[in-house]
Design goal:
Elements (H helix, E strand, L loop, with lengths): L1 H8 L8 H15 L2 H12 L3 H23 L5 E3 L3 H9 L12 H17 L5 H8 L2 H22 L3 E4 L3 E4 L5 H18 L5 H15 L25 H5 L4 H27 L10 H18 L4 E3 L3 H6 L6 H12 L4 H8 L2 E3 L2 E3 L4 H11 L11 H17 L2 H18 L8 H17 L1
Antiparallel strand pairs: 1-4, 2-3, 5-6
Length: about 450
């Protein structure tokens, strides 16, 4: 078995082992496990049955992780994307009277299917790989650092360390809250383990935080370990393509879903790939395969009953735990399937603890903060001595956490770099596609205004 794994995944060449990959896969899974509970709840708003959405989330994520692991050999997990799911339920499938686009969930899933199919079709002209090549190195590193800041901000919010404010937008949270103190304990434990160079620091940090939460009764004990009451139903055959094509919103919805998927995927692959050291001469090897996996996952996810499935930035947690090959993804996929009967146990880690209307994820917060801090190191590779590159790259890095969108960060970075290159007479040094992307993003903002 060891010989087969070595031939299939190249473990020795990647400096890893089956044990390390298993640990990395588990770390990634538990870091993003919140999606197992958030996604079905959001899909239910659109009208998709909760049980169907939960099964679709687990099954589509498992399929996508296996595909990425075997085809692209990357430890980059995939699952339904936050942000995309909100657009699906609260805009695309919301009633016209409430400002939505008025699609049924069956039509919304059909739109998701078409956007994923378009993503696959563009492989014929290598559009997706060209987008990766068009981004200058400084922007790629800025994206990685910006994603890190976004992950850290999410972790701080999950732990109650920061909260929204009407005047300053964000402020320090209530440090007297027991759940916030639990998150602080977890952050301190994780940082200590990282300082001691413990390979399983993030995973052990989560386990330690969970144990402390159970002992202090801040984290509720699961009602059960295993349940037999889970559905394996899908919506295959219920996608309403005819109704979607007769809607005057079809082009708008498919384009937005496609647009979000392409640039979030490119941003995530660049950011996580840079953190893991996968980039070679500024490019990601096997990028076409990785992008195909993302697009195929969206098509399969729509067929099963969930919104856009895409690469997850939380994969950086597993990479920090030592994951370097697609074998880690197979372990993550296995845990997604195991989550079906073990939903009560997973809930102890991934479901929110609601206090006075606020949701806390104290067990997940430490890993997210630590991963964000580690990814922010990519900012050191930006050419800060060149304002024409540094300023647009900084803007991209800053916009990602502030807008909570990788796509918006890429947009501001492309526009800024294109304009700066024109002003300084270096426009021809930039990839032509960068200028086209800048124009497209500018037109998007003008049309949205």
């Amino acid at each position: 078995m060891t010989g087969f794994l070595e031939r299939r995944f190249g473990l020795r060449g990647a400096g890893t082992s089956p044990r390390t990959e298993a640990l990395a896969g588990a770390t990634t899974f538990f870091t993003l496990s919140y999606i197992l509970f958030v996604q079905p709840a959001i899909m239910q708003v659109a009208g998709i049955p909760l049980e169907t959405a939960f099964f679709a989330t687990c099954a589509a994520s498992a399929f996508a992780c296996v595909l990425m692991g075997l085809l692209a050999n990357y430890p980059i997990a995939l699952a339904p994307a936050m942000g995309h799911n909100l657009f699906f339920s609260f805009i695309a499938c919301a009633p016209l009277a409430s400002g939505g686009l008025g699609l049924s969930w069956q039509q919304g899933l059909a739109a998701n299917f078409l956007s994923g199919s378009l993503f696959i079709a563009l492989a014929l002209v290598k559009f997706r790989e060209q987008v990766l090549r068009a981004l200058p190195d400084s922007l790629k590193h800025a994206i990685a650092a910006g994603i890190g800041l976004m992950i850290a901000l999410v972790g701080l919010e999950f732990g109650g360390l920061v909260q929204d404010d009407a005047t300053t937008l964000v402020k320090l949270g209530d440090l007297s809250s027991p759940l916030t103190q639990l998150a602080l304990f977890g952050i301190a434990l994780t940082v200590a383990l990282l300082a001691l160079r413990v390979r399983a620091a993030l995973f052990l940090g989560m386990l330690g935080t969970l144990a402390a939460g159970l002992v202090t009764r801040q984290v509720p004990l699961p009602e059960a370990i295993v349940t037999r009451d889970f559905a394996c139903s899908t919506v295959l055959g219920e996608l309403d393509f005819a109704g979607l094509l007769h809607s005057n919103r079809v082009v708008e919805v498919v384009f937005v879903l496609f647009f979000l998927d392409v640039f979030d995927t490119v941003g995530t692959l660049v950011g996580v790939g840079a953190r893991a050291g996968f980039l070679r001469n500024g490019e990601l090897p096997r990028a076409g395969r990785a992008l195909f996996c993302d697009a195929a996952a969206t098509v399969v996810g729509a067929s099963l009953g969930t919104s856009t499935v895409t690469s997850y930035v939380e994969s950086a947690a597993g990479i920090q735990a030592g994951g370097r090959t697609g074998l880690a993804n197979l372990f993550t996929a296995g845990l997604f399937l195991l989550a079906l009967p073990f939903a009560p146990l997973i809930a102890a880690v991934g479901s929110p603890i609601v206090v006075e209307g606020r949701s806390f994820y104290p067990v997940l917060a430490p890993a997210l903060v630590a991963v964000g801090a580690l990814m922010a190191k990519s900012a050191t590779y930006i050419d800060w001595d060149d304002p024409a590159e540094a300023t647009p790259s900084f803007l991209a890095m800053f916009i990602i956490p502030m807008s909570f969108s990788i796509t918006e960060g890429i947009a501001f970075g492309c526009i800024g770099l294109s304009l700066a290159s024109v002003v300084t007479g270096r426009a021809r040094r930039m990839h032509p596609l960068l200028h086209l992307l800048a124009i497209a993003f500018l037109l998007r903002y003008i049309l949205l205004a």
